[in-house]
Design goal:
By secondary structure, the protein is an alpha/beta fold. It contains 10 helices and 12 strands. Bound molecules: adenosine-5'-triphosphate (ATP) and magnesium ion.
């Protein structure tokens, strides 16, 4: 299996009034070709900023992004453009990411036309028809406007647009969070079928652990810009090691009656500020296991068992 995406000490800081907001603060990870890495964590922990920085939609503060073994942070404009075509994004809210004045076929054709893929207009519209089939949109909808469609169909347009340039890697940023539960499963199944058919590699961002469990090969847990734990998805649910991951998992609702008495570990206190953060574990102020040593220096991710890394001195 080959690595398609590799991040080395990737950082994105935003200048704000009172200093630097460390939205993404030294992320190291790899995604194998054809696999899905889930990114989970509370609102504001830097998931979207990470996805956008990987794609170059935010300029990184420092660090490296390798796509197919090539560092695309410091490469030539033409190399970046070529790589970027193969790296696309699916957004959370398909309604606000689609121009309301464009019809379905125009929306799907737009990236193809901008990139000048085909010379002939008929070829463009053949490709659009083909993409509509691929994502399960009936051809009769090609003249419809986004407001005439339900959320699931709108998201299918988002998926078709992302696929239009034959990408190999897609950042899916909360692609089902805005959808009705009944439609979420349809879109997740579509994404998984497309992955099988086209060999796609996904970074799948969500705050919903039950969704990420369904779709991910591996999962990275983020807390205030840092990755605190990363391992195969099954392992994370079976054997979470970081106190933050344990608390996140214990908060998932369970359907089984015998599990209902299970104690939910409530995370105490507030998330600290990401502006000019102090050294040490960012979770320490809320962690039941924290001691002074946790606040002295940043805690690196350490591989505890093969493929399972955690950033915690108490593990
Ligand atoms: N353009 C920006 N300028 C300044 N700060 C920003 C900018 N974009 C994001 N941030 C800040 O960076 C941090 C991470 O934000 P981000 O949107 O990446 O979080 P998230 O994990 O995607 O949250 P959510 O689950 O709510 O989508 C937050 O503190 C946010 O306020
Ligand atoms: Mg987000």
């Amino acid at each position: 299996m080959s690595t398609l995406i590799e991040l080395r000490d990737l950082k994105k800081y935003f200048p704000v009034n009172n200093g630097l907001l460390h939205a993404v603060d030294g992320i190291n990870l790899k995604i194998e070709q054809g696999k899905t890495l889930g990114i989970v964590g509370e609102s504001g922990c830097g998931k979207s900023t990470l996805g956008r920085t990987v794609l170059g939609l935010h300029e990184s503060t420092s660090g490296e992004v390798y796509f197919d073994s090539e560092n695309i942070v410091n490469c030539s404009k033409s190399q970046f453009k070529k790589a970027r075509r193969e790296m696309q994004m699916i957004f959370q809210d398909p309604y606000s990411s689609l121009n309301p004045r464009m019809r379905v076929e125009e929306l799907i054709a737009e990236p193809i036309l901008i990139n000048g893929i085909y010379k002939n207009k008929n070829e463009v519209f053949d490709r659009v028809a083909n993409l509509m089939d691929t994502v399960g949109l009936a051809q009769r909808l090609s003249d419809a406007y986004p407001h005439e469609l339900d959320g699931g169909r709108r998201q299918r347009i988002g998926v078709a647009r992302a696929l239009s340039l034959n990408p190999r890697f897609i950042v899916c940023d909360e692609p089902v969070s805005a959808l009705d539960v009944s439609i979420q499963a349809q879109i997740l199944n579509l994404l998984m079928d497309l992955q099988d058919e086209l060999g796609l590699t996904y970074m799948f961002i969500t705050h919903d652990l039950s969704v990420v469990r369904h779709i991910s090969t591996d999962i990275a847990v983020m807390y205030l810009g840092k990755c605190v734990e990363i391992c195969p998805s099954k392992e994370l649910f079976k054997n979470p090691l970081h106190p933050y991951t344990k608390a996140l998992l214990s908060a998932i609702p369970v359907a089984k009656a015998e599990m209902r008495h299970k104690k939910i570990e409530v995370i105490r206190g507030e998330v600290s500020s990401p502006v000019n953060p102090k050294l040490g574990c960012r979770f320490a102020p809320r962690c039941p296991l924290a001691t002074t040593e946790c606040t002295i220096d940043d805690i690196p991710l350490v591989e505890i068992t093969p493929g399972h890394s955690v950033a915690c001195l108490k593990v």
